[in-house]
Amino acid sequence: MIAEGLGFGICLGGVGYFSAQYAWWRPVVDWSAPRVLMYHMVRSHRPGTRFNKLRVPPEQLEKQLAWLKARNFHFVFASQLVSDEPLPERSVCLTFDDGFEDNWTNADPLLEKYGACATLYLVTQRDGGWSSKKKAHHKDDELQAEPKLTDEQIHNMVKTGRWELGGHTITHANLAKIEDQAATHEIAGAKKELDTEFQVNSQTFAYPFGIYEPRHSQMVAAAGYRGAVTTESGIEKRPYGDPFQIPRIKVSGTEGLLGFSMRIRGGKRGLFK
Ligand SMILES: [Zn+2]
């Protein structure tokens, strides 16, 4: 009897743990609200390093795309989110931050295979000036060492019609830590560079590290962007209350398909993240 009670208790504990990790109880956000997914790298993990969450292995991305495809998700660009265009239910927008080379070598063939498209938030100065440090004491060698896209690769990406470009500043600046004049230059200068170099009209922006203050949203609007994405987890309905604060769904390289599907349903995987 005691043993049975103990077993029941352990079992309940397990259910509680599972329910906190995977929020099956969270209501599904209305499917008319587009899901905006945030990716960084698409490559195998580097054992013993800090940022494997940012590395979604290609096999994992393929499973995710197949999962979305099987459920009739409709792939859209971020520019469509902030346009007046009506979008069908189950719209999903893939976004890739920073400009890692594997977005072209590993992700693009999968986008092609599954008829998907994506928005690339590109740091314009990807060599030398690149900063992946959120705080001054952070070492940023790990992300700095990852190969970045060349201009030629980006030209090819744009040519496929599967990729659109969005701004992510010139140097991956922490906007809250620099003067307003420098922030304006980072935001507006990046748009000018992207639009001129790649002959596009970039429509949306992603705040580096997800760090920004209201005045930065105003700078983004003044630069000619129509909207911006954050790193806040969530799903919002269109038309957006504030198109310069669109939340995204984090896709983690260390999570399986169950976590992914929970995030697509409710914006978060579990109770807290
Ligand atoms: Zn970034």
Automatic annotation (TrEMBL):
What residue range is the signal peptide? none
Q: Which GO terms describe its cellular component?
A: extracellular region
Q: Tell me the compartments it is located in.
A: Secreted
A GO molecular function held by the record: hydrolase activity, acting on carbon-nitrogen (but not peptide) bonds
Q: Which InterPro entries match?
A: Glyco_hydro/deAcase_b/a-brl, NODB_dom, Polysacch_Deacetylase
Keywords, alphabetical: Hydrolase, Signal
* Keyword Isomerase (UniProt): no
Q: What is its EC number?
A: 3.5.1.-
The EC category is hydrolase
Q: Which residues form the NodB homology domain?
A: 90-273
Q: Which CDD domains match?
A: CE4_NodB_like_5s_6s (cd10918)
Offer one example of a GO biological process linked to this entry: carbohydrate metabolic process
Q: What is this protein called?
A: Poly-beta-1,6-N-acetyl-D-glucosamine N-deacetylase
